[in-house]
Amino acid sequence: MDIFKVIKEKSCSIDFTAKDKKDCLRKLSDMLAKTVNEIDSDKIFQALMDRENSGSTGFEGGIAIPHAKISGLSDFTVGIAVCKKGIDFSSIDKKKSFLFFVIIGPEEKTKEHLQILAQISLLSRNKNTQKEMLNAKNTEALKEAFIRHTNEIMEAPKESEKKKLIYVILNELRFYDDILEIFISKGINEVNIIDSSGIKDQLSNIPLFGDFLNFLGERSDERKTIMAIIPESEVQKITISIEELMGDLDKHTGVMVMALDVPYVKGTLVA
Questions:
Q1: CB of 81 within 8 A of CB of 114?
Q2: What is the CATH number of the domain that holds 22?
Q3: Which of 137, 154, 171 is the last residue before a domain boundary?
């Protein structure tokens, strides 16, 4: 998915205002309609409202990502709006939203929709990016900041590139959703996830070692093991993204990343 082609300056605003959530969605729909020929503002608005009725897309940290799949569209359109005063968008943290990313796309392109959502979610959590976008002096600067930082996430691997089997073994499960988002943002959907545990849980069933369990620490031994076959160049990118989230992996005890050569692979798990 080439996100650069689906965001246009006419679909951006640095002085966006709205009196409430409904008014916000109406004005975002009007903004997107300026660059969409296949459907009108009313259809966009209704689709965004229907999506919000199933659960708010207002997230923590002043970010909202309203989005919808709409029949009749042939491609995606992304808009960005900055509201200096903020809008009550029923966010998770009950605070106002200041930066809005609005996405509409074809009903049948679910994989691409997920990828765009994940890319924007990762981007929106970058505090430096947020600050740059919130302080953009014009719509051109707003769009350029978005594209520049998104490019850091999205650089595509070569088709003929060697493959690796990556393992991410995660003990700090509060980062689990964020790490899955990293994979999805890169279009990696063929991910296998195993519920696993470390040696501490196994030793707890053996009376002989009962006196030594404290030596292994207080942390729960519940783990998630994430596996995927990916292009070799993506290994370092994924590792860097995880370190941006959790810190230096050489000093962190809650996650481990491994990559192995894949001499042969045939078949797929995703339709």
A1: no
A2: 3.40.930.10
A3: 154
* pLDDT tens digits for range 87-131: 999 998 999 999 999 999 999 888 888 888 888 888 877 888 889
Residue 74 near residue 60 (C-beta atoms within 8 A): no
**What sign does the dihedral 149-153-156-157 (CA atoms) show?**
positive
Q: Which domain holds residue 217?
A: 163-261
Q: What is the DSSP letter of 20?
A: S
Question: How many structural domains is the chain composed of?
Answer: 2
CATH number assigned to the domain comprising residue 257? 3.30.70.120
Question: Which residue, among 13, 51, 55, 54, has the nearest Cα to 32 in the 3D structure?
Answer: 13
Closest CA to 259 of 163, 181, 170, 193: 163
Does residue 269 sit within a domain? no
Q: Are 269 and 190 in contact (CB under 8 A)?
A: yes
In a domain, 266, yes or no: no
What gap in Å lies between CA 209 and CA 199, rounded to an integer? 11
Closest CA to 259 of 237, 68, 31: 237
Is residue 7 domain-resident? yes
Report d(CA 62, CA 56) in Å as an integer.
Answer: 13
Residues of the chain with pLDDT under 50: 213, 215
Sign, Cα dihedral of 9, 21, 137, 147 = negative
